[in-house]
Amino acid sequence: MRIAIITGKRFIRTAIEIISSLRFKPYIHIFSVDEEIRAIAEKISAKFTKIRSIDDIYVHEELENFDMAIIAMDEDYDGINAARALKTMGIPTIMLILNESINRDIPEREGIKYIVGIDNYVLGNIASFIALDTWIFMNVLNYLNLGIAVHRVARRGTIGVFLKELREVARERNIGLIVLNKIGKIVEDENYEIEQGDTIIVIGIGDELYRGVNDIERIFRKHEEILARRYTETFRISTRPIG
């Protein structure tokens, strides 16, 4: 299987983790305007091509031989233009990741079937029925068994869980991980402490998605137990009789 990834610095980690979670090893070719992504491509033995702009995609005729494309650009208009270009080149499966779901109308009209709006999980219809501190699972690509799990943080906020702990799980399980803060912005700082109102999005293949979620749950439970012991000890000290 030949997979093209068109991405920017903001989403390269997620795109690579999605690919890494596949049980088979596809041929990967990364196209990006960001030269620094070349080093990441080399680490996963992927071919890298630097492009000056999305319009450059049209000149790469080798893309006509690819089976799938994953597009995750920093700006939605770049992602939509890339999807339009790849569809005209005949790539059968195109997965487009958008920052704002309101922008999905154009690619839908042009026949792009697999569209993931990152903000859906905070501002869209899904957010209205996701119970706080629970997980909801959704399938994105049936034939790849690719799924998404979403978790909205409430009482578990600010208990000592940091983004770097969750990213360690993502690396070990080969799953994609995105954390949105309460206003829907993607968090990049590994030292960020998960807060009330944040949303955790996990992307993975088959059982690895569920194993990754279980590992994240264990991290939250560990910190909940630490916090509970701390409060219990404080209560004992404060109620100790005098004399």
UniProtKB/TrEMBL annotation:
- Keyword annotations from UniProtKB, A to Z: RNA-binding
What top-level branch of life does the organism fall under?
A: Archaea
Q: Which GO terms describe its molecular function?
A: RNA binding
The entry's protein name is TrkA family potassium uptake protein
